[in-house]
Design goal:
Blueprint: H1 69-75, H2 80-95, H3 100-110, H4 116-128, H5 133-137, H6 141-144, H7 146-158, H8 161-219, H9 226-239, H10 245-261, H11 264-275, H12 280-302, H13 306-316, H14 320-334, H15 339-343, H16 351-363, H17 366-386, H18 388-424
Helix pairs in contact: 2-3, 2-8, 3-4, 7-8, 7-12, 8-9, 8-12, 8-17, 8-18, 9-18, 12-13, 12-17, 13-14, 16-17
């Protein structure tokens, strides 16, 4: 007979619930017989989040913010590709039976020279000191994101951390794939735009003053057309020392707009305009719809409660109108209305999105319907981004053609006017 002191004081891990088991809580109103299960909920007041005790020789670290400022200078920000690789390999280690400490040690060595390396090391130290994975990643919320944190919380409470990590890895990988496609598609248009802007600046500084001197003689005898007068005024401004404003405007104006866009007031003003721009607005809207469907499906399927899922999904949206639409739909959903009915009045979600949601609500499989919707929209965005360069080229050609046409009109219209007056006189 074993001695009582030989018994392992660590409680056994809770087994994963079987699909045939009844849900721990009844489904929330508005979702019928959906396949997701609500979160077990937060711990009772006064009850600690984890029963694990600190390991001898280690002390629990305080929840310090991360990453450090010098890490951002040395390594930059953690990319979606790094997070995808981290989640997939972490899940593989756990499936193979490797404990958290050894798995994170190996991942820390792998990402040692990247922005994710110091983050993984801090998480490993907190877990070795006795923290759960949820508590260890909480101070790194800026790196992993609120969706990651919520899904890990539910996964640790119900079991199934490796499956949740694989799902998060797939989401990060899809985001990284779209970013790479967008960058590759924009290389050619950006090069053409930079070259065209450089040529326009050189012409304005060196070529236009030559034409302006020729037009000044004609202006003494006849009234010049509006294009010629505008070109002469611009030439006098450049000759008076305003040439430096051209490169400053071409470089400073986009940077100023970008900095303003990073503020809440800038996003509130520019996002509605951005979503109505031809081609680009459609891409951004489809991106946000795909992000909405993927995030909400992952949270509901992981067992996060409906209210928290709606809040986190709204935070994950990139544009202000879409974010406000999802946030406004939370109230009606919590009152018992269907999600499709709550989203329809906003006008930012198309009829196809509402139809898919209605189908999911009727069948009780909202996460599955949302995943299919996300796959469809991500495929559409990938196709549009892939052809983005071909769509922007006509716009660049029109801009260059308009600039050349303005110079031709400004230079040749006065001569035509003089020749016409001489022929008539």
């Amino acid at each position: 007979m074993s001695h009582p002191d030989d018994v392992d004081p660590t409680p056994p891990r809770r087994p994963r619930p079987s699909p045939d088991d009844p849900p721990p809580n009844p489904p929330r109103a508005g979702f019928g017989d959906s396949t997701f299960r609500p979160s077990p909920g937060p711990p009772a007041p006064g009850k600690p989040r984890s029963s694990r005790k600190p390991v001898d020789g280690f002390r629990m670290e305080a929840a310090e913010p991360g990453p450090k400022w010098y890490e951002r200078i040395l390594f930059g920000r953690v990319s979606s590709g790094q997070l995808a690789q981290f989640c997939r390999q972490f899940a593989s280690y756990l499936n193979a039976g490797v404990d958290y400490d050894r798995a994170l040690s190996s991942l820390g060595r792998q990402f040692e020279r990247t922005a994710l390396g110091p983050v993984v090391e801090r998480v490993r130290k907190r877990i070795k000191a006795g923290a759960t994975l949820e508590d260890a990643t909480a101070p790194e919320r800026d790196t992993f994101g609120p969706v990651f944190q919520s899904m890990i919380t539910v996964a640790e409470a119900r079991g199934g951390v490796p499956e949740t990590l694989r799902s998060l890895g797939a989401a990060f990988e899809a985001r990284q794939r779209l970013i790479r496609q967008a960058r590759s598609a924009m290389i050619y248009p950006i090069i053409v735009l930079v070259l065209a802007s450089t040529i326009a600046c050189l012409m304005a500084i060196y070529i236009l003053p030559m034409f302006a001197s020729l037009l000044s003689d004609i202006s003494k005898k006849a009234q010049l057309p509006w294009a010629s007068r505008a070109m002469m005024a611009f030439s006098r401004f450049v000759a008076a020392g305003g040439w430096w404003i051209l490169p400053l405007a071409l470089i400073g104006a986009p940077l100023a707009i970008l900095k303003w866009y990073r503020t809440a007031a800038g996003q509130a003003v520019l996002d509605p305009i951005l979503l109505r721009i031809p081609v680009l607005g459609s891409i951004f809207r489809k991106l946000d719809v795909g992000r909405f469907a993927r995030t909400l499906a992952s949270l509901l399927d992981a067992g996060v409660d409906v209210g928290t899922s709606m809040d986190l999904t709204a935070q994950a949206m990139a544009t202000t109108p879409m974010r406000n639409a999802v946030a406004a739909a939370k109230g009606p959903v919590m009152e018992g209305r269907d999600l499709s009915v709550a989203l329809a009045p906003s006008g930012w979600f198309g009829p196809d999105v509402i139809a898919v949601l209605e189908s999911g609500e009727e069948t009780g499989k909202i996460p599955e319907a949302l995943n299919h919707l996300a796959d469809d929209y991500e495929e559409q965005v990938a196709y549009m981004v892939k052809n983005l360069g071909h769509l922007i080229q006509p716009l660049l050609v029109l801009m260059l053609a308009g600039f050349v046409l303005f110079i031709i009109l400004a230079v040749f219209l006065p001569y035509i006017q003089v020749i016409t007056s001489l022929a008539g006189g």
